[in-house]
Amino acid sequence: MPPRHVRTLAATVAAACLALGAAGTALATNHPTPARSAVAATAPAPAALGSNWYAAAPYFMPLDNDPPDAGAVMDATGLKAFQLAFVLAPNGGGCSPTWDGLHPVASDTAVAGVISAIRAKGGDVSASIGGYNGTKLGQACGTPEATAAAYQQVIDKYGLKALDFDLEEPEYENTAAIHNEIGAAKILQQKNPGLYLSVTTAGTADGTGWFGKQMLNEAKSQSFVPDNFSIMPFDGGFTGAAAQTSALTNFNAVLRSTFGWDEATAYAHEGISQMNGRSDTGEFFTQADFQTVLDFATSHHMARFTNWSVNRDRQCTPPDNNGRTSGTCSSVPQGAWDFTKFSVKFAGATPPTTPPTTPPTAPPGGSCTASPYSAGTVYVGGDTVAANGHTYKARWWTQGEAPSTGGSGVWQDLGAC
């Protein structure tokens, strides 16, 4: 898998299991009210959050990259919304929604449990579609209508009030796929009044690249305007906050020229998605960089401020501030959830200053005696590592899949250290 965003996806699931999961997920083009009511009866209703919280929700992988306890993060930071990642087509093929290409939405209980816990504390979630790895539904489904029907299943399953279309490599190089994704977003916008929609794409020094501009032109041709278009100014030779705010200024010009907006209107439809700590290409973004970008975003009345990711918002154990990019820690000196607190500030809330009653999950490794897990190391069956205060044993060969009880099942949790 390409390293970008360190979005580790397990790749060793039996094809038979995928086929069974896909077979159990039937696509529907119509979603009558009774079906939605049945779903709502089995899951707590979302909190009445303002759009500012969906605009500030940081990305969070609930099934991979050693997910922390969402409730503990909420207690420690004051956060109320998470951007759950990622909804994809099944790895074995088909036009039905799955988490990470592995876990069918139709039969999911794990993510539903995470959402229920967040909502029980007064929060809510948005689901993010796409990302860098895996096959996207816009690629797998033949039409905008079929693509929208797949995403409608996700909305109905979890009672969602917000969605993020993360359109980037390699999908956004596929003209037909982007036509399907933008068309699906427009259909969902019409079928679900009040649905908060963001579109996220790659950032470059001049705002966004050729394919990003092509995506904006596709949106214009379909008369589709989401709540925001966000760029990701990292993994492209960016040196700190100054390079990022310059890219945001240039992206504003791109939005103006594409849609005919004035500067203020363009900023009101513009967002940023950052990467906290060390990026995949070795750029470093510190808390001071986040503060500078936050100041820029608020002073220009931008529409969205998010980052990749909550899973990474903790210091590596032992500290590794130069050598690697991890999906489970930031590789910069920090306190737990330092970067998440900037999202809270963007939403207009004040992060708590006292420690929470329930402390957040310990950084990977904890006080274990086994060697800390390293994403770049190859492990074979029988190898043990430390992560998140537990010792894990590899069942077979693996590289790049963070220890957890989910994923492909390669890691056996031997318990707390």
Outline the structure in words.
The chain is α/β, with parallel strands linked by helices and 417 residues long. The chain is built from 13 helices and 15 strands. It has helices at residues 15-23, 33-42, 51-56, 70-77, 110-120, 137-140, 144-158, 175-191, 210-221, 240-259, 263-267, 287-299, 340-347; strands spanning 59-60, 81-88, 98-99, 103-104, 124-130, 162-166, 196-202, 228-232, 270-275, 277-278, 284-285, 304-308, 384-387, 390-394, 411-416. The strands form three sheets. Strands 1, 2, 3, 4, 5, 6, 7, 8, 9 and 12 form a ten-stranded mixed sheet that branches. The chain has a three-stranded antiparallel sheet with strand order 13-14-15, with no helix packed on it. A two-stranded antiparallel ribbon has the order 10-11. A hairpin with a 5-residue loop joins strand 10 and strand 11 (284-285). The chain is globular. Mean pLDDT is 86; it is low at 1-5, 7-42 and 356-366.
